[in-house]
Amino acid sequence: MPISRAVQLADKLYAIDAWMEDGPERLSCYLFDTPERVLVEVGPSATLHHLTDALDELGIDDIATFVVTHVHLDHAGGAGQLARRYPRARIGVHRSGARHLVSPERLWSSAVGVFGEEWLASTWGQMEPIAEKRLMALDEGDRVPLGGGRFLDVMHTPGHARHHIVFHDDDSGGMFVGDSVGLCYPHGHFVQPVTPPPDFDARLVVEQLHRMAQRNPKFLGFAHFGPEDRVAETLASAEARIWDWVRIVERMTNLDDKAATEELRRWSRAHYLDLGFAEEDIVKYEAKTFWPMQIAGIRRWLATRQTR
Ligand SMILES: [Zn+2]
Q: How far is CA 14 from CA 49, 153, 161, 230, 297, in A?
C-alpha cells in the first residue's frame, strides 16, 4: 500500500518524507505550494523517486525554484536529475557551492574519500551536472520569492559546511536548517551533531546556532528528519552536545580512528541513557549515524585549530 508521504505543516507548506537508503524518516524535503513553488532539499539521486512520487501525489507539475541547504550528496545528489524533470526550475545554492553542481566531479571524489565509491554509487547514486545558467547563487540576506509577497530569507550558516545556508519563512515561522543544527528524529526528539570533514568547525556551528535562535523561529525543519517545535531547547542542546563531542575526541589522543569511533559511539550511548532517552530510540539514532565521519571531522578541526 502506498504511504502518504506529505504532511501539511502550515498554509501551503508541506513536509515530504523523501526516504533515504531505502528507509522512511531519514530525509525531509519541504514544499511551498505557493504561487511560485519552492522545494527545499532534494536528496540523493538513488532514492529520488520517493520525492517525485510524493510531488506527483500532490499534483505538482512545475516547480519555480528548488533550493538546497548545501551540496552534500544526501541533500543535493539528485539535483541534476530533478533539474531534468522540471526543466524550467531554477536551482538555489550558496554562491560557493554552485560550482559543485555545475561540475560535480570534485564533490564526488571528496565524498568517495569519506564513504567509499561502491557504497556511494549504490546507496546515494551518481550526480548529474546542471547548466550554470539555471543556478541561483544565494548568500546571507538574499530572498527566494514564494509569490504573493512571501519570501524565504537566506542565512549563510557555515560550520557543518562552509557553504551551508538556512531558509527562514516568516509567514509560518519555519526555519529550514539542513544539517547546521544536527540530526533530530521524531522518535526520541533529541539532537545529535553532524561533524563531517573537511569543513566542520565547532566554533562556527555554535555561532550559527546563536544567530538562528535570535530569529526566534516557531519550528526547525530538519533535513534528518522533520519539524521540531521545541526550538530553544533543541538549539541549546545542539550546542552542548557539540562541545561534549569535541571534549571527548580531544581526550582520545592515544586512540586510532577506529578505536576513537567506537569510543564516541559508546560514550554517546551511555550519555543518552543517563539523560533518560529510551534505549529503542538510541538504537535507531546509532543506526542512522555514520560514526567514522564524525571522528574524522572533529579530528581535522582540532588539528587545523592547533596549527593556526
Ligand atoms: Zn551535510
A: 17, 18, 26, 19, 33
CA–centroid distance, 222 to ligand 1, in Å, is 12
Alpha carbon distance 61, 89 (integer Å):
11
Query: Please, what are the domains in the chain?
Result: 6-249 (3.60.15.10)
69 Cα–ligand 1 center, Å: 9
Read off the pTM: 0.96
Nearest to 237 by CA among 185, 196, 306, 191: 191
Ligand 1 ion: Cβ-proximal residues, 5 Å cutoff: 72, 179
9: cell is 505543516
Q: What is the pLDDT of residue 2?
A: 44
What letters, b where the CB count within 10 A reaches 16 and e where it falls short, cover 81-120? bbbeebeebbbbbbeebbbbbeebeebbebbeebbeeeeb
Distance 1 CA to ligand 1 centre (A): 32
Give tens-digit pLDDT for 203-242: 999 999 999 999 999 999 999 999 999 999 999 999 999 9
Q: Which residues pair with 17 in a beta bridge?
A: 28
- Residue 123 has a CB neighbour count (10 Å cut-off) of 17
